[in-house]
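Predict structure. Chain length: 282.
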Amino acid sequence: MTFLLTLLLLAGSALLAWRLLDHRAERRAMAELVSTQPSRPPRFSPEMVAELPEPARRYFLYTIESGTSLYPVASITMAGRFGMGTKETPNYLDFRAMQTLAMPTGFVWKMHANRGLLRLSGSDSQRWTRFWLMGLLPIARGGNDPDHARSAFGRYVAEAVFWTPAAVVPGPGIVWEGVGTDCARVTVTYRGLSQSVDVTVAADGQPTRVRFERWSNANPEKQYGLQPFGGYLSGFRSFAGFRLPTQVEAGNHFGTDQYFPFFVAEVTAVEFPVDSSCQGLD
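Prediction complete.
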């Protein structure tokens, strides 16, 4: 009995140490992303987007106020529901999360979720997926491969369209084109990856939905391939000169009868942090 108890204590200690290492890696990765924030970015002017197709120009004039500092890196606090099941049986968990979004470099989404006594925590990034049950049992660990990187790239390029519009202002590796009266497409190319995202805008330029072909294995066959992903945007508020959605619903197979909005979130805060070690530098 004493030997068994010792083994259990050792196993528990090892799992706790493993979880703490994950926490440390998440914090370090978030800090690295924040360090890419320019300390003195240019300020937005309509002339920057004057040559874009009309729906793209309308999108920028709505989402970024003239004179706004173009910070591309954001810290986003959110809460909502995360579906662990299927369209027929969503198995939603309530979640709270903090995300650092730094397109095109990467992102970290760190969350805690629960349903009754069930507890789930962990993180997603462009490098990994790591989730823990009850804080001690690793139940999902993946990433560090080309499929994960390509899938994650699609996610955070799309999220940049509605949460960090400064990151998709035209420039090297960022090209906009018109695809309809009220729809524009941005294509981002970065380190061998390329992702196009369509954004639909209202008459005043407010983005109402995004859609793109995402590299994903979220299908019955669990095989990677391109499939539609997207969501709806609402509840816009102003944050430091940006008009951003605070209500987002998104999921796989967007626009089809298989659409399952597994991610339903309400944003409570958006900040644009600057690495303190870089403040005051040119």
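Summary: DSSP finds three helices and 13 strands in the chain.
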